[in-house]
Amino acid sequence: MFPIASYYVSSGFGGDISLTNIPQTFTHLQLRVFARSTYTGGATSNYQGIYFNGAPTSNNYPTHILLGDGSSVSSSSNLTSNQIIPDSYSTPSGTATANVFSINIWDILDYTNTNKNKTVRVLSGFDANGSGRVSLGSGFWTSTSAITQIDVTTVNYFAAGSRFDLYGIQSSPTTGA
Amino acid sequence: MPISLASTSASSMHGAMVPIAVATGSGSSNGVTFANIPQTYQDLYLVCNGGGSTTGASSLILVTFNGIYPNPLSYTYLGGNGSAATSARTSSTDKICMNGYGSSVATTTNPGSYITHILNYANTSTYKTILCRSAEDQNGSGLTALTVGLLRSTSAITQFNVSQVDGTNTPTSTRFTLYGIRTVGQ
Question: In this structure, is residue B11 part of a structural domain?
Answer without folding.
Answer: no
